[in-house]
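User: Sequence recovery, please. Input:
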């Protein structure tokens, strides 16, 4: 049976929104895994709510592509296919290359300092084996680069892939210390290129960074599929 986190009630949000965000976060973080069945009655009982807001939340999750509803089979968390991974990360590769190239030319001293601080915080998380913290710092690292590109439309386009990319990050970083170290080294290379304002080098390193992730994630998902999840 799927176990969901305790609801964090917000007086400013409708119950259906709280349920939706709770389930979405659990799916994206990997707490509820691909292929797991979502049963309205069970979820409603665990959360102490009626079935109606749970049903509404599940429909919104389906619209986002995070769950699939199949007649006579029920509702399941969407499986990750190699095609899904390639589609998203191919787009992210192009976006990251552009963002990093622009950031190398437009980054302000305050943004560079913020990037250095986040990188140090990432290192601290890795040293403490805090993978969840490392994932958050990885997100912040790239967010600063996108902001430094000075292109709000580019930031908005990348934001539309945010949930999918975070889900992939969780899979990638689950590889433990070797992966975390690889990310650390690749971030250091990108940071050095940004410091030297070398847009071509920075964008090439950004592409390499995402390509490495794509290969590892595809390998992990393929192996899990062969083992039956």
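Assistant: Recovered sequence (229 residues):
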């Amino acid at each position: 049976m799927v176990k969901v986190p305790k609801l964090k009630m917000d007086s400013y949000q409708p119950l259906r929104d709280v349920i939706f965000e709770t389930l979405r976060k659990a799916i994206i973080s990997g707490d509820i895994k691909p292929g797991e069945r979502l049963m309205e009655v069970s979820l409603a009982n665990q959360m102490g709510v009626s079935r109606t807001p749970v049903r509404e939340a599940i429909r919104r999750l389906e619209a986002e592509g995070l769950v699939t509803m199949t007649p006579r089979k029920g509702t399941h968390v969407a499986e990750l296919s190699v095609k899904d991974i390639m589609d998203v990360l191919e787009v992210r590769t192009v976006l990251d290359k552009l963002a990093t190239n622009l950031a190398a030319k437009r980054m302000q001293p305050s943004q560079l300092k913020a990037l250095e601080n986040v990188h140090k915080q990432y290192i601290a998380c890795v040293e403490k084996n805090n993978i969840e913290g490392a994932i958050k710092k990885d997100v912040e690292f790239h967010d600063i680069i996108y902001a430094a590109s000075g292109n709000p439309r580019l930031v908005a386009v990348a934001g539309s892939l945010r949930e999918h990319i975070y889900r992939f990050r969780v899979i990638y970083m689950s590889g433990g210390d070797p992966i975390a170290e690889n990310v650390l080294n690749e971030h250091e290379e990108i940071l050095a290129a940004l410091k030297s304002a070398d847009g071509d080098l920075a964008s090439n390193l950004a592409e390499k960074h995402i390509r490495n992730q794509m290969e590892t994630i595809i390998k992990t998902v393929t192996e899990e599929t062969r083992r039956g999840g």
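The domain at 15-77 is CATH 1.10.10.10 (Arc Repressor Mutant, subunit A).
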